[in-house]
Amino acid sequence: MKKQTGWIITRSFIVIVAIAVLIWAVSAIFKLTYPFWLAALFAWMLKPLSTFLHHKAKFPKGIAALTALLIGLSIFGGIITGLTFLIIDGVQRFADKAPSWMEQTFLNIQQFFNQTVLPVWQDIIGVADNLSEGEGFTFNDGISEIGAQIGTALGQFAQRIADGLTQVVMNVPTFLVAFLFILLSIYFIGKDWERIIEWFHKYIPRGVNEKIYAFKNAMWGRVFGYIRAQLILMFITGIIVFVGLSILQIESKIMLAVIVGIAEVLPYLGTGTILLPWAVYLLVTGHIGLSISLAVLYSITMVVRQTIEPKVLSSSMNLNPIAVLVSLFAGLQLFGAVGLLLGPVLLVLIVIFIDIGVFKDLKQFIMYGFKED
After folding, report:
1. Which residues cross the membrane (predicted)?
2. Does residue 230 form part of some domain?
3. Rounded CA gap, 137 and 217, in Å?
4. How many structural domains is the chain composed of?
């Protein structure tokens, strides 16, 4: 019994070390070869179209893969173009109205300074004049220190922005090279897909191949379920924003509702990336009622999303609502705002591993070791 327990502990240690090494190795390899993995993913997504063109339209394999790639790029480019036109239209509208907005903003800031800040400052100066010499020096030093800290903070903030922009510019050539490799890899992987699959079947053990096939089928359904859930949440958010903007009688409400709905895909903030800056601007420019209304609209969208998100994700991806809630909270705690996306993804991976029997096989190995068929 003691010997069996010792073997169980040893095999448990082996499994833990193997998983840690596997995670490290996959991470290191992915950093070096990520264009090819992304290309394999896109080639897999374009494979049904390429197969249709090859078998039904009688295209040669190379032409079918190239045509599927061009069609995929056209669809992707069309989406990007549509979003670009929406952004350009919004920027043009902003550019037309920005001068009057800025003028009104500075007038409100000046009025606020004259009516609120200046009287307070005069009171402070009056207090400073009534202080003793030593107290006055201390008071002035404190004010100087606060000003110095604010100046330092602003300088650091500006430096971080400059460093970030520099990093973005430096990464542009790398991105273009990676994008070129992805395009070329999509073509070659799509053209030789059957040969690559045959190689996997030949050199990878049958049991591992069965797990990979089961994982692919389960992942396909879960991925589509996740995309479906996000589209549902974006649609519901867009409808709520459209109704709210209609009640407030805002111009271009359809375009704004679409933009806010698309922004919902951003982790944590979502609609806040549009509605909150807008509400702050209206508050500064003196439109307090409209600013409060937009803040209320943002609160409603957040409450509705947080209420229905677990249910939508659980129904679309066939997951337990409690498990989805736990994954959202755990992801937020571990990874921050991005964790609201990573949490459900990790939950999906764990559920798929359970469904295809990976954890069952690990338990079997830990308890009894390798068993002959």
Report:
1. 12-30, 65-88, 172-190, 226-248, 254-271, 278-301, 321-354
2. yes
3. 75
4. 1
